[in-house]
Every structure is written in C-alpha cells, then in structure tokens.
Amino acid sequence: xxxxxxxxxxxxxxxxxxxxxxxxxxxxxxxxxxxxxxxxxxxxxxxxxxxxxxxxxxxxxxxxxxxxxxxxxxxxxxxxxxxxxxxxxxxxxxxxxxxxxxxxxxxxxxxxxxxxxxxxxxxxxxxxxxxxxxxxxxxxxxxxxxxxxxxxxxxxxxxxxxxxxxxxxxxxxxxxxxxxxxxxxxxxxxxxxxxxxxxxxxxxxxxxxxxxxxxxxxxxxxxxxxxxxxxxxxxxxxxxxxxxxxxxxxxxxxxxxxxxxxxxxxxxxxxxxxxxxxxxxxxxxxxxxxxxxxxxxxxxxxxxxxxxxxxxxxxxxxxxxxxxxxxxxxxxxxxxxxxxxxxxxxxxxxxxxxxxxxxxxxxxxxxxxxxxxxxxxxxxxxxxxxxxxxxxxxxxxxxxxxxxxxxxxxxxxxxxxxxxxxxxxxxxxxxxxxxxxxxxxxxxxxxxxxxxxxxxxxxxxxxxxxxxxxxxxxxxxxxxxxxxxxxxxxxxxxxxxxxxxxxxxxxxxxxxxxxxxxxxxxxxxxxxxxxxxxxxxxxxxxxxxxxxxxxxxxxxxxxxxxxxxxxxxxxxxxxxxxxxxxxxxxxxxxxxxxxxxxxxxxxxxxxxxxxxxxxxxxxxxxxxxxxxxxxxxxxxxxxxxxxxxxxxxxxxxxxxxxxxxxxxxxxxxxxxxxxxxxxxxxxxxxxxxxxxxxxxxxxxxxxxxxxxxxxxxxxxxxxxxxxxxxxxxxxxxxxxxxxxxxxxxxxxxxxxxxxxx
Length: 757
Ligand code: GLN
Ligand code: ZN
Known about the structure:
Layout: E1 2-3, H1 16-25, H2 31-51, E2 57-59, H3 67-74, H4 91-99, E3 118-119, H5 131-141, E4 146-151, H6 153-158, E5 161-162, H7 176-192, E6 197-201, H8 211-228, E7 232-236, H9 244-250, E8 258-262, H10 269-276, E9 283-289, H11 299-313, E10 318-322, H12 341-345, H13 350-364, H14 370-385, H15 392-400, H16 412-423, H17 440-450, H18 456-477, H19 494-497, E11 501-504, E12 511-514, E13 517-519, E14 523-529, H20 536-543, E15 551-555, H21 557-562, H22 572-592, E16 597-601, H23 613-631, E17 639-644, H24 653-659, E18 663-666, E19 688-691, H25 704-715, H26 736-755
Parallel strand pairs: 1-10, 2-4, 3-5, 4-6, 6-7, 7-8, 8-9, 9-10, 15-16, 16-17, 17-18, 18-19
Antiparallel strand pairs: 11-14, 12-13
This protein binds glutamine and zinc ion.
C-alpha cells in the first residue's frame, strides 16, 4: 500500500508566485526575493504532502514558467538567437526564451500553454540546468524524500517543433541519441544525491502513435537502462487511456519498474487492465483521484475499483495516485469564503485531493478512516439528490433537443444577401472582435461595485459613459459594425457564469495557465438555465447611441464549457446542450430588442478537441450542434458571427462550415496566407470571413500600407465579397493610444482597397 501525487500546483494558494514573478519582471524586486517566494512555496507543498502521509512525493514539478521550458534549459536547447554561451542557465536566458527581451521576441507558446522547444540538427545539447537535482536536495534537507519528475525524452521531442530553416526531411526523433546522454547525466547525479525513484512524464503515450514512434520509445528506454540501475523508474501517463498497442510497449519497456495510468479521463483504462493484464513485476500507479477537476472523489466507489485493481496488479504493487498533476485544479478549498457549505462539501481542490489519495491508500490496508468516509458518502448523496443540481424543466428541454439538427433553413449565401440589403455595408466591411481597452479606472469601478462600495446607479452611469466613449470612438474611426466594448465584463466566461443558474464562482480557485497567467474557471454544478437576460440591456444601450449596427456579444456554449470546471455526473455534451439553450434564449432576446448582428464567440472550441482521433468526430458533432442550437431560431436577416482565436483549421474545416455562422472572424496575423487556403480548396465555404489583419498581442502599430498589403494577399486566396476587415482578437489588453492608431490604419487600409475597386 502506498500513495503518490503526480504533481502539485506551484502558483500558490493566493497566487504568491504570480505576484513575485511580476514584481521581478517589473524590476520591483530582486532575483533573491523571487527565489525566496518560490522556495517557501515548495517547502509548504512538500510539508503538506508529507503530513498527509504521502509516500511518493514529487519534486521538480515547481517551475518559474512551465516544465517544458525547464526541460529545454536542462538540455541546454537554447535557440542560438538568445546568445547564451554555456554554463548554468539563469533567469536572464530563461525568461528571455519565455517572454522575449528588449531586442528579441519570445519563443512560441502553444495553445496548450507551454513554450515550444525549437530544435534542429545543429543544436548542441549540454546539461545546463541542475534544477531537478537542486530541488531533490532541497527537499531532502528538509527531511522529505521525493521522486524527481522529468519530462520524458520522447514526449519532449514530440512536443517540440523544428527550428526555422531546418530541412523538411529532418526528423525530430533523430535527436534522441543527442539528448539521452544528458538524461543519463541527470540520472547519475540524482542517484549520487540519494534518489531511489524517478518519474518520467510521457504524456504523448496516450496519443495515436505510429510504430516508428513506439520503436523510438523502446530505443530510448533501452539506452537509458544502464543509468536506471539502482533506481526505480515510473513512466507516468495522463489525460486519456493508453491505446492497447502502446500499452503493450509501455508495459515491457526496459528498466521501467512502474507505470502510472489515468483512471479518470482514461475511460478505457480499467478495461485495458482487465483484458491485457498487468506485468507482475511492476508497480501500478492508479490515477483515481481526478487531477483536472474540483469534485470530491467518491471514496467508496473508488475503494471498490482499487480493490479490483489489486487483484490485477497484486496487493503490494498497487499505488494510489492522482489522474494527472494537480496543477490543473484549484489549490485549496480552505480559501473559498464565498461558497456555501453545501457546495463546498461536494468539492476537493489540490490540498483536499492529497488527503483523499492517502485516505484511500490507508483504507486499502484496512486502516479506513470511517468518519472521513461517511462524511464523504453523505456529501455524495446530498449532491446527487440536491434540487440545486437537478432541474426537471431543463432536463425536459434538453432531451427534446435530440429530435432536431437545429439548422437554419435558408442557405448562408441567400441569408448574407438579405442581411446586406438590410445593413447596406460597404465592400470589405470593418469591425472589431468585441472588447475595448480595460483601463485602470474601469477595473476599479467593477471592483468597487462588486464590493458594494458604489451604488447600482453610479455603476450603471459609469459603464454607460464608457460605452458611449467606445461608440463615439468607433464612429469617428468610421468602423462599419460596432461593438459596445465589453466594459462590464471581467472575463468572457465568468461574466456569464455569474448570471447563469447552475454555476458557482470561486474567489481563489485560480489555475495557472503558464508563467504568471492564471484563470479562474467557474464551477458548473447543476442543470443550467438563464433566469433573466444577461447582455440585452448593455447591447440596446449601445444601439440607442448610434445608427450603425451594434454587434451583440456572447460567449458560446462550447467555450463556456471548456473554460469551466464541468460536472462529472453527466456527459460533457449534456451540460453543453443546457448552456446552448440558455445562450439561445439570450440570442433571441437580443434579436427581439432590435440587435441585427450577434457574435457568439467560440474561442475554445478547438482546444476541447480530444487527443485521440477516434474521439474527435463525436466531440465535434455535439460541439457544432450546440453552437447551432444557439442561433438556429433567428431570422434570415439577423447576422450571426462567431470568433475563434486560431487559424489552423485544416483538420476541422468541415466542422467550421457545419457551424453555419454567417461570418467568422479568426486569428491570422501571425500565420501565413497558406493557412487560409483551407477555406477555399476542396471545400464549400460560402460564409463571410474576417482573418485578423493585425496582432493584438503586441503593442506594435501596423501601418496602413502593411495592413493593405495583408488584405491584398488575402484577396489572392479569398473572395472580395466575403472578406471582412478586423483585428485578430479583442482589444482589452491594449492601451487606448495603441488601439486608436491601429484601428485608424486598419480603416484607412480598407478604404484604400475599396477605392481601387
Ligand atoms: N469578444 C471577446 C473579446 O473581444 C473575444 C475574446 C477571445 O476570443 N478570447 O474580448
Ligand atoms: Zn480571440
């Protein structure tokens, strides 16, 4: 019997690391101060795990940015432009890669929020960050024996990209032989320092891998085997089940003594273990406590599952663990002052999950904490039966959905014609994506309103004034389709979560996305419905200030779902359909109030795509269906826009078409025009499209010529009469001075091209 934690949040229960990082980056604190905050966080995390009785405590899961970047530092895989000349990598080089510096841009960040290594055949690797060893020793000095965690060599390479200018024939896996020697150095040093276990995170093992890649795994671990002697090696997987072919390879890897499997997202893991068995000489780390969500574990059910696993793996070979690193859940429920006791009893954040893991592992050897288990049983029962969770009228409406595909009957081309007759827009119409700069004043007003420091009237007045300012500005700039600027919104998901039934908001439920960036996902605990209109007042207020069309602004159901903590007591699609119905009510109320254009953002639709191909079709089907539900009921003359923060649509283009929006605006300014050709080649994309003409993530102001040039290039790929002109994304992180100049140039570019018609 034993317990293990895959990894732990490092941002701190009150985002201590975030504030320390930002103070350091702003030059307001020293490197030493930052290191001290980081050290204190690590120490408290290790103590917490040790006090709970955890046998296998991870180290080296702390990071100043992300663990992929840490691995890049460990391997000395610094792209040459950063001018690093060797030696231990310090904050300078590390943060330059992460965030850029005065002369160089940062390395690319993926949508999965890590800094992507840029590798090529000429890159020299060297052991250049001893962080894994330092952290191991640091814990040891405190009397805590830990399992150092490394990103495994194959996953590291497969999550990397080829550097620019590298020949297309270059295979990234060919670098294995160069990085393995460095892993060996790390292992040797860890052993010398006293480590007896090491954990290799190999998340790519849950993806669809070809036999060539599986061979690479075998190869890599065979080469490492020599350094494995004297060490127990855990290969950790997560986020899905391991495909059967891969499972056969993983369970026979050389020198590996333990395998970690995700029993939560890995819905077929149990089946796999039952049908293929588990090697008798290895340990099974059973990830039964959900690392990606905030629900309390059903302890009795989990104990049953674990007992059945004991029969497969052997009593002394089963280790109770989390499904993945707890990095993906909130930190500590203790700091939630606004949630009521009933909801709190249904939840477990990282700190509580550690206790659950240990309670399960003790129960397995007959040391069951009866009081703890019965409290848990009572909470599970109260959640199941609660009228706050179950709303019969919502269930009735969602089950009725299954009888229709919810398509608008008129084809998009005819709809666009009718909409054009109504709105009479010029060629290359201009618009923005929704938000305008969120000034300090604006944030203060919202904060004071939330804290009841200013009255309803004062708040309404301030927001109305802000909207008025934004409308006037857009009119002066001569933009065609206007927005109200979203001044009342703190966040595009939280805003709706606050108003929908079935949602709860936390005060400290932060999850780190990378570096100092954190998100605070709402918790969806019950059947979702919309008690009253959420945006109609602000959109109509804006419309009353102008004769130009105002674009109503909503977040779509799939994005709300993907950026929330979701119920685990019903399938995701069920929850998504409920949200879709709530948004549908809002769309129809906006239309009835005279709003002619409505944008339904689906920024996170692609991000929710399952890792495995076999599951993607089903996801896309219900995701796209949910989107259509929101707007299938509007008149042909009402124009539905959607917005997505990416442009690589190659693999999902047919789903995008199937969403059947009238206009889609996408991010494009950082990619080349080739990506847009998917909208043309071989598919019948007939709707309007606005590929972002400039990058809103950068303070740089694009010139009129530059934007005109971009549009001209795009016109080489897309038809003039479907093209819209807009920025990449919302403007909320920019300053007014920047926005004013950039939009002036954007409108000028559109006019320039119209004049050439
Ligand atoms: N309408 C939102 C905004 O402009 C969209 C943001 C997003 O796509 N992430 O802020
Ligand atoms: Zn966006």
